[in-house]
Write a structure and sequence with these properties.
This protein has 131 residues and is of the alpha+beta class. It is 44% helix and 22% strand. Strands 1, 2, 3, 4 and 5 form a five-stranded antiparallel β-sheet that branches. A hairpin with a 7-residue loop joins strand 1 and strand 2. Helix 1 packs antiparallel against helix 2.
Length: 131
């Protein structure tokens, strides 16, 4: 059946929670960064019509999040640029709590970013030369 995304959308929340339902991201994907950390989660998905009527029988799925330290750091860095101040505070706290483990990874990511920026500049020069 055809679904008009402006009227009907898929929403989610942790199955045991009474938290408000949240929409999937703009591309229709599950926003992984909304999960706190590694662990097992039971997520309920439901249809929501006109932001007022929710499916009475949501589908529940169990997922296991098992990211390595670099994945957890990247997810935390992604949360630092969230529009939600509470989410940014959580990310800042996680960075502080994990600073000893994550500092070497952060330095590695900084080096990789610097190298990528240098390659990008070389590619721009090459592109200009080929025009």
């Amino acid at each position: 059946a055809y679904v008009n995304r402006g009227v009907c959308e898929v929403v989610w929340r942790e199955a045991s929670s009474e938290a408000p339902w949240r929409p999937l991201d703009a591309a229709g994907r599950f926003p992984l960064r909304q999960l706190a950390t590694n662990g097992v989660y039971r997520i309920a998905f439901a249809a929501c019509e006109e932001k007022t009527q929710y499916d009475l029988s949501p589908v529940t799925m169990t997922i296991r999040l098992a990211l390595d330290d670099q994945g957890l750091l990247l997810m935390t860095l992604d949360r630092l640029v969230s529009d939600d101040p509470a989410e940014r505070r959580v990310a800042e706290r996680r960075l502080y709590e994990n600073r000893e483990r994550w500092t070497p990874l952060l330095h590695q990511l900084q080096r990789q970013s610097q190298e990528a920026a240098e390659r990008l500049e070389a590619l721009r020069c090459l592109d200009d030369a080929l025009r």
